[in-house]
Specification:
Structural class: alpha+beta
Order of helices and strands: HHHEEEEEEH
Helix content: 25-40%
Distance between the termini: 98 Å
Number of helices: 4
Strand content: 5-15%
């Protein structure tokens, strides 16, 4: 008769302990990889937004997308350029405000809490706009002296983005008040007028934009 060797209890416990340790090491790595993938997806979305904005300007005498009346995310031409559905509500230039989840930041409340509207994901900068006339203010891209230093869109909750360096967690009942959100491992994604997208730390935001009025107007050519 053959002698069949069986695992002892100590050997089984040893194997379980090794598997547990390996799982504990791999789970954070996999979680970090998923976070990086979501950040890259958000970066790609913002790049699509900036490219669509540039194409929009080419069709409208170099004018950037007006922020309101209707809102930038409701403008049929912009939605068509970025690849969102275009379903006019009436004869005016108003479309359905919802965006496909794939065009929104995967870390945003727009996706996580099923609020599929662009303003729960991204906000357009207010810094090029006057406080009194921001709803109808429009500007031409050639006015910008340094497009690489002027951001067009931010990770934010709100139609318009208000810059600050505070890192608060985004909540399910977040009010779209324009607060920028550091969604990606305490980093903020921003799309710039020259087409590039950058991840910014709170320190960089505080250094360049906090507590200053008309921050990006310093990049404008005077009288143009």
């Amino acid at each position: 008769m053959k002698c069949v060797r069986k695992f002892t209890l100590i050997e089984l416990l040893t194997v379980v302990a090794i598997v547990t340790v390996l799982a504990g090491m791999l789970i954070p790595v996999l979680s970090g990889a998923r976070a990086v993938a979501r950040q890259i997806k958000c970066t790609g979305n913002l790049k699509s937004f900036t490219q669509a904005g540039a194409l929009y300007a080419e069709s409208f005498s170099d004018y950037w997308i007006p922020p309101a009346n209707p809102a930038w995310y409701d403008r049929i031409e912009f939605r068509r350029l970025v690849g969102a559905s275009v379903k006019p509500k009436n004869s005016l230039e108003n479309a359905e405000s919802a965006f496909p989840a794939g065009m929104l930041c995967p870390e945003s409340s727009a996706v996580r809490f099923n609020r599929p509207f662009a303003y729960f994901s991204y906000g357009v900068t207010l810094d090029n706009l006057s406080e009194e006339n921001y709803r109808r203010y429009a500007f031409r891209l050639p006015r910008i002296r340094k497009p690489s230093g002027a951001a067009a869109w931010f990770d934010a909750v709100g139609v318009y983005a208000t810059t600050n360096s505070n890192c608060f967690t985004e909540q399910e009942n977040e009010i779209p008040n324009g607060r920028i959100i550091y969604r990606h491992r305490k980093m903020l994604n921003a799309g710039f007028f020259d087409g590039h997208v950058a991840s910014l730390s709170p320190g960089i935001v505080a250094k360049h934009w906090d507590n200053r009025l008309s921050q990006f107007n310093r990049y404008f050519y005077e009288g143009n």
